[in-house]
Amino acid sequence: MDKKKLGYVMAYREGHNNYGTSLQGFVLLKKLQEFGFDVEIIVYEKHLSLVQKVRFIINAIRCGEFKDLIDRVKNKVVLRLFPNYANGVKKRTEAVNLFKREKFFPFLHKYVGYNSLHEGSKNYSVFVVGSDQVWTPMSLPNKYFNLLFVDDKVPKVSYASSFGVSEIPNFQKKATGAYLDRYKSIGVREKRGKEIVDSISNQIAQVVADPTMLFTREEWEKEILNARPHEIEPYIFCYFLGTNQDARSSVNKLKEKTGYKIITIRHMDEYVPKDEGFGDEAPYYVDPLDFVKYVSGATYVCTDSFHCSVFSIIFHRQFMTFYRYAKSCKTGRNSRIDSLFNVLGINKDHLFVGGDICNNINSELCWNTIDENLKNLRLKSLDYLKNALK
Fold this sequence. Notes:
alpha/beta; 7-stranded parallel sheet; 5-stranded parallel sheet; 14 helices
């Protein structure tokens, strides 16, 4: 009997170097294949008209995320102004692209233009979208991550999809509820995501584990066995996506107290000039599995990243998570950090809101309870996915 063909829509983009995005896509791909599906990763090459581009910009402004568009343009200018930074980003892109060529390229299927994408959807038995921030308000008009391009007759499943925001803009609630109602099953990554789905659609969502949490520690250790970093002396690993300088100052205090060197990965989301003087080592040629290995071997981990927090938990590191966005920011992504801590029962001393980082980062973590919560969440999540794909 032939395998059923599954269309997998993930946050895949060449030249995009976010480690969490690559790693969650990698794990979910492997789990879908383990379930016996012939998986194709759907790549959509857009051919947008001028009118569609204008609508996209207007939507971004109305969503309060026009700054993201400005930042994209700004980063291109910065790459020209700072050649050392540009060379570093080039090295990182080479490392990540090599990972993608090995893990993703054999399964890619590219569709050019929306009509081709829609017609092609009829060739699949089921579609899965996830994970990461695939349902942000900015993505609504593209009709891609929300699976609006998929034929009505083809079942649609969401796994660990995230809206990335705490609230859906009022002008989008009706359209968002409409596309959610087209799904057979909806699994979301955060409790806030479930509240959104349950309140604006006729669906009842289930909170499931981020795909990176579907691998056990032993499975991750196997994957990173041949990864490059082989640090022996103690170190503090820093992975900051935001620009909060108070976070860097806190890490420097930890360095002064411990004497451990700081290994940091700079300029992930944007160029941060002050970071040029932060850290003792700042490697650029780091692929997603190298990143995991840096976390696994660190004495301390300091981060404002959801996925770096996840790997700190999986590998039982003493870690500190900082908020990347102001708590009052409606377009911020803090809810996924809060959800992670609540679901796994993480001591809130490890969520930095001020105080002495040296004391807080060393506060006790009940790993037996955390591991049991993580195991139960993993099994529950895999059961959800198996049932959704029946």
